[in-house]
Structure formats: C-alpha cells, structure tokens
Amino acid sequence: MFRKALVATDLTPASAALLSCVGQLKPLGLEEAVLAHVIYVAHTVGLAEQLADEAAPELRLQATLLESQGIAVRTTMPVGVPAYALADLADQENVSVIVIGSHSRSLLHGLLAGSVALGLLGITTRPVLLVRMAIASAEHGERCQLACARFFGKVLFPTDFSETAERAFHYLQHVVKGTGAHITLLHVQDTARLAPHLASRLEEFNEIDRERLERMAARLREQGAASVSTAIKVGAPLPTILAEAGEPGYTAIVMGSQGRGFVAEITLGSVANGVARRAPLPVLFVPASR
C-alpha cells in the first residue's frame, strides 16, 4: 500500500525523532523514502544554493536513520513555499504517502509547524500521515516527544459513510491486513444535521448506521483485525471524535480528510481540520478522490 513515502524534514532534532518512527510503515509495504528538506527563501535572492550546501551534511545524516530501518533513501532539497513544494514533489515522485510532523509551538520551526502541515493537507491529493509532536519540560530546557510508540496498535476510524470515508476505509483494510490492529469504528450522529426536522428519526438512523458499521466490521475481521468494536454517538462530530481519541489505548486515527457537505474539494473539511490541529495521536488522512 505504501511502497514509497515522501518524508518531510526541517533537519531539527524533532525531525530526527520523527524519522525513527517511519520504519513502522514497513508492514504496509514501505520500501523506499524520498527525504525532503525544503529550502524556503523569502524576499532574498541568491541564498538557496548556500542554504542547500549548509543543510546537506545534516540531511545525509538523517537519511542514515531511515537506511538503518531497511528503507532505501533518496534525498532532495527543493526550493519554494514548503506546503506547495511538498505537494508538487509528492506528485512528481508518485509517492504513496506523505509523512510529516506537526506542532503548533514556535519552538519547532519549518516543516514541523502546524501551519505547514495543515497547508499541505489542504492541497495534496496523497494520503498524509501526520505525526503529532509534544513538548515536555526537561532538565536543560524543553524536548520533543512523539506520539508514535506504535502507530497501528489500536486505531480509531471515524466515518460519516461519505465517498471519502469509504476511500479511507479501503486504506484501513490494508492497515489491518498488514498489522492485525485493534479497530474502533465510530459514527457520530451530528446534532446540527438532525435538528430540528430529523431529530425524531434518530432511532431509525441509528439502526441503519449500526448495520453499516457491522458490515464494515465483518470485512475487517476477514482481513485479520485483532478485534473490532463499533460505536454510534450523538453530538458534534469534532469534540466527539477528539474525546474518543483521548481514551486510553488508542495509537492512531485513520480518516477521510473531507466528508459530507464540503463544496470546495481543495478545502480541508472542518472536522478533519480540527482533528489535524488537536488530536493527540498520529492521523492518517485520506483525501477525496479528484
């Protein structure tokens, strides 16, 4: 499924920590990685070559972290606006997935800043594995922690039964086949969509959606899932998904990056946007088919 990955790095120690997690994609078919450091030169002409020369040794050093996990690596340093440069590179290289870290704090610069990851999610046509960074206090300042002890141990799959969610479910089946993960299938009955005219039909909708989830669960069990549970909850989708993801045991989220009701395909759906900003776990986002 993920034979070739584009891995983004800003050459910080946080990026090095992220690279240590990439080998977890090998059960999903990962063989090759393109390790990319974007040279972003704003309002200054002639610095790109100098910055590339300065970055080359560290980029080569980080490449060895991937090679030590049995992954063939090529390095590249495109020049441009990071999110757009990465999206273009992913298309040129025809990668199966983009791996990028994210954090909202200014301590982590460049590709690990939340704005770059969110910008990428809004424009790429490729699946994106977004790995959450956390900042913890340490004796000599602050250090980076990654939420990637095991990507696909227990996976939360929120679905609204849209076409994009169905596409994400296709990827989830491959995850299960490769890892034998524990899966929770979650559907949220959106109170904003139910009120005021459809609230009386909630039980009818629950019954229909319960059958949908059970059919999905059966397919996952056939693929070798360690366990599959289903849940239907009533509320606003984003806080409900985040609350479930915060329960003990979950190691990742897999979901579509757009669902029902989004008119502009290039715009990241509001629920996916909120999950990207606030989820405490790695998230595999699967975009709508374009």
Keywords for this entry:
alpha/beta, Rossmann fold, eleven-stranded mixed beta sheet, globular
Q: The CATH topology of the largest domain, please?
A: Rossmann fold
Estimate the strand proportion: 15-25%
Low-confidence stretches: 104-112, 260-268
Structural class: alpha/beta
Q: What's this, in brief?
A:
By secondary structure, the chain is α/β, with parallel strands linked by helices. Helix content is 38%, strand content 24%.
Explained architecture:
With 290 residues, the chain is α/β, with parallel strands linked by helices. The protein has 9 helices and 11 strands. It has helices spanning 13-19, 48-67, 82-93, 114-123, 163-179, 191-194, 202-222, 237-245, 270-278, and strands spanning 4-8, 32-36, 72-76, 97-102, 128-138, 141-146, 154-158, 182-190, 227-235, 252-256, 283-286. Strands 1, 2, 3, 4, 5, 6, 7, 8, 9, 10 and 11 form an 11-stranded mixed sheet that branches. The protein is globular, with a radius of gyration of 20 Å. The chain starts with a strand and ends with a strand.
